[in-house]
Amino acid sequence: GQNIDQPTEMTATEGAIVQINCTYQTSGFNGLFWYQQHAGEAPTFLSYNVLDGLEEKGRFSSFLSRSKGYSYLLLKELQMKDSASYLCAVTPYGYKLSFGAGTTVTVRA
Amino acid sequence: NAGVMQNPRHLVRRRGQEARLRCSPVKGHSHVYWYRQLPEEGLKFMVYLQKENIIDESGMPKERFSAEFPKEGPSILRIQQVVRGDSAAYFCASSPAAGQNEQFFGPGTRLTVL
Q1: How far does A101 lie from chain B, in Å, by closest CA?
Q2: How far is A14 from chain B (nearest CA, A)?
Q3: pLDDT tens digits, residue range B19-67?
């Protein structure tokens, strides 16, 4: 089976940094995705990690440690529009995404 | 350059009726995935289809649910004799191939069963 854990909620101030952790235990591993989902909208792709290390893309960075079954998404210079749910998903064998329950991030002025 | 299209966006059905959810993938994508999102829960995989073929339906309930992706036209998720527990958001995603490719999600269909 698949088990993917991430915190339920996080709150941060505009301009700050927030780190969303994700731990996983899966029967296989073929990559880890982070998606952003605003309320009532489609999940949109943020990042994909398959090798250990940090991937940076503008204000967002994602880190993966396969040996620890651990990833984090780092959001820098937070903006109000970053208030959303952030979904960690693992693909055990190439197509089926197993999602965590999502972390709701609230950015306050 | 349209993304994944889903319709209807909102669907209300009474218990016992049928629900048909449609998904048009990104142009050129031949792989379609359906996920269900219950309130306060993460997205759960239901079924993976390529054109005219069901590849993996391990996440789909054995009864009342079916999916197809015909050679022409959109993918259809069909729920027969709906019950209140079927109320959820149903998301469709597509990709050009299986594997590490990003899955592009549609806006979802929110099904409410009265």
Answers
A1: 4
A2: 25
A3: 999 999 999 899 999 999 987 788 999 999 998 899 999 999 999 999 9
